[in-house]
Amino acid sequence: MNQSKILKDLISDNLVSDPNGARGRLLKEAARLFRDKGYERTTVRDLAAAVGIQSGSLFHHFRTKEEILKAVMVETIRLNTALMQAAVDAAPTSQEKLRALVRAELESVNGQTGEAMAVLVFEWRSLAEESQADVLELRDIYEKLWLDTLESLRQEGRLLADPFVVRRMLTGALSWTVTWYRPERGGLTLDGLTDQTMAMMGFAAGT
Amino acid sequence: MNQSKILKDLISDNLVSDPNGARGRLLKEAARLFRDKGYERTTVRDLAAAVGIQSGSLFHHFRTKEEILKAVMVETIRLNTALMQAAVDAAPTSQEKLRALVRAELESVNGQTGEAMAVLVFEWRSLAEESQADVLELRDIYEKLWLDTLESLRQEGRLLADPFVVRRMLTGALSWTVTWYRPERGGLTLDGLTDQTMAMMGFAAGT
Amino acid sequence: MNQSKILKDLISDNLVSDPNGARGRLLKEAARLFRDKGYERTTVRDLAAAVGIQSGSLFHHFRTKEEILKAVMVETIRLNTALMQAAVDAAPTSQEKLRALVRAELESVNGQTGEAMAVLVFEWRSLAEESQADVLELRDIYEKLWLDTLESLRQEGRLLADPFVVRRMLTGALSWTVTWYRPERGGLTLDGLTDQTMAMMGFAAGT
Amino acid sequence: MNQSKILKDLISDNLVSDPNGARGRLLKEAARLFRDKGYERTTVRDLAAAVGIQSGSLFHHFRTKEEILKAVMVETIRLNTALMQAAVDAAPTSQEKLRALVRAELESVNGQTGEAMAVLVFEWRSLAEESQADVLELRDIYEKLWLDTLESLRQEGRLLADPFVVRRMLTGALSWTVTWYRPERGGLTLDGLTDQTMAMMGFAAGT
DNA sequence: TATGAATGAGGGTTCATTCAT
DNA sequence: GATGAATGAACCCTCATTCAT
Question: Which of UniProt's keywords are assigned here (chains A, B, C, D) (predicted)?
Fold first, then answer.
């Protein structure tokens, strides 16, 4: 099942907003602004201007600015959970599953459609505590995919460290790429970056 | 050369503020607040209250709030550069040097004295561009320690990935520990966490 | 002529809106909300929600929010003028006329059907000046009933004070009951409250 | 003890703000604006302009706009309680005590210094519920003066109605004078208005 | 008539910064 | 140095009103 099919299904189930609709367009711009300037530095006027409406009109779609942040995070996590699941399902071995997860997360963080993943990671503190609890529930599903894969590798003797710790390290490492990885300037492709990540963990490409 | 000696030297060279002086105390509290609440969410009144003065009085020590952030970063990086250098110098092999660097950075990020390192990483965006240039210069020295060590390991065949990429991955991974590592709740010690980090990269403890 | 007959006549003359119609229902809810929360604190969304429509739809019935306030006042004053007139006509003596007026006004202010009277008194300031002039004209008819009755009592030597002043004092006193009189909690009935009002003025019950 | 002496004592006890100080001047202007335009229609910018400062500066003295309303009410009630107490103490008979209370309340509501009393009465609903509880406590002292006096008259057989009801009626009647009594246009003086009020209750002047 | 998205002015409040004392 | 009142721009959000559908 390819990416656009996954997205289409989520949209028709109302789990993710249609990127062509008013709400979807706003969330996309919000994700971009939040990633680039940070949640705090992004004003509701910035958000409104980015989709060509007045700031007051925002509040037709969302009750508060924070609700926008939450929506960005919730929809991102839903989309990425579905993408990760598909990636894992399609990979035959544990190592390939891991590679697929790394690759998918790098794409989420750095890709054109996925700037919201960086928001999820770096603006977490700006989310109200009540909202954090809601998002954490969704996050658990997502994290389980990682932990199961890492656990398998551990049992196969191909991973020396604790899967839980490794996952958290990888969260930081992969998210952090958003601050420095610039594929457009030539150099490393996303596949190359994935290879490097695997190599850092001692997995040579193609083994 | 132990840590307190290093600190003392830096203080007497006026490279780092005396933590007992007014300026030093403020920077320490600022680092803590910036790490805990973020730069944007920390008000100058918060900063002033933390050291028991009025907000207006802050501006006798620093011209702007951003100058405080910059000072936190500059002094942090000076201190940590000295600490890292000492750590590297004391380690005989490349792998031990790497372990020392990891351990030192984890301590910087999570330790009692070093909360400022997290600020350096996560509040970078809040620093004015002109200030970023200044800090980056200092950072290069610091980064060189890492790159040299990783390069050696690479040449020894013990590291498969590109040192530059690995360093950036480690920056993210190690900084991110501030969001989840809670030694006080029992469990992993800083040494244990260091071991895990090394293990993730394929370096078994004591090899 | 009883109350419902009076109301029916006013409706068929188009002087008061049918409480079963869209306009009448809205005015009734508006009166309740204006009395309970005040005109300023009542939003058009509140008004719309109270009759189960969207806020935009309100403006098919009234050009502005203030027009709703004016309509509440105008219809209230029309209805109450008719009720007062009937009450006065039915009472044989001046004292009984006064009692009937007091009783009728207390009922208007506190009764189930007449919550709008409190609006007329306490939200006067919110009415635009142009509208005030229109309503004042209607009010004069209403006030004349009071003044004529008080004047008679004065001439009979049963009232020591100036009728004009007494009427204004009674306006305040009777309107103010809306803030404290709670018949549902037991205690004073409307008749009892009427007796008390008369007693305050030196008119013993049944004299 | 005359009025200015009473005021001076309250000021030196910090129960009422000095009308020459920043806080006192603001409260005075706030009372005037709240009475003239209503609390809701008065903006913090109006308040600030009335004392010649910027709106942001208001929040140095008061945390919220509502706190200003509360302060107006609290200080008013403190001042008026002291004035009423003095008025009652100075009057020898129950009837004269009542007259003194009526006269004092009329002066509070309509006098130059006392515009705040009208705010206390007519803006009650705008006060947050928690604040209402605080103010009510103060109000009880004030009301007791009235109730004791009315109770005495009742026992002397000079008042037919229930003191509790009479007090509430008088609250409405006397407060309402603010909406229509215009001494400057000639006609009734405050003493004359007091006489009329007493006469309405069957107390001839000088009896 | 009814909807509901959009408007746009203005609301209360925050906050880094200034400055007379 | 320290204070604290004052600034003024900007913030998030509200709300009466409009209008295409």
Answer: Coiled coil, DNA-binding
Interchain contact D169–C (C-beta under 8 A): yes
Separation of alpha carbons A173 and D143, rounded Å: 70
Domain D63-200 top-level CATH class = mainly alpha
- Residues of A in Cβ contact (< 8 Å) with B175: 172, 176
CATH class given for the domain over C3-200: mainly alpha
Q: How many CB atoms lie within 10 A of CB A171?
A: 19
Tell me whether residue B137 is exposed, middle or buried, using C-beta atoms within 10 angstroms of its C-beta: 0 to 12, 13 to 18, 19 or more.
Answer: exposed
Each residue of A164-184: pLDDT tens digit?
Answer: 999 999 999 999 999 899 887
The type of residue at A83 is L
Q: How far is D171 from chain C, CA to nearest CA, in Å?
A: 7
DSSP for residue A183: G
The pLDDT value recorded for residue D81 is 93
* Domain made up of A3-15+64-200: CATH architecture: Orthogonal Bundle (1.10)
**Contact (CB<8Å) D202/C197:** no
Which residues have CB under 8 Å from C1's CB, separation 6+? C86
Tell me which CATH code domain B3-16+64-200 carries.
1.10.357.10
Average pLDDT over residues B51-78: 95
H runs (alpha helix) in chain B = 3-12, 22-37, 44-51, 55-58, 65-90, 94-110, 116-122, 129-155, 163-180, 190-200
Residues D134, D137, D142, D146, Cα dihedral to 10°: 130
- Calculate the alpha carbon distances from B58 to B48, B54, B119 in Å: 6, 7, 20
What is the average pLDDT across C120-128? 91
> What are the sequence ranges of the domains in chain A?
3-15+64-200
Give the burial class of C101: count Cβ atoms within 10 A of its Cβ; 0-12 exposed, 13-18 middle, 19 or more buried: buried
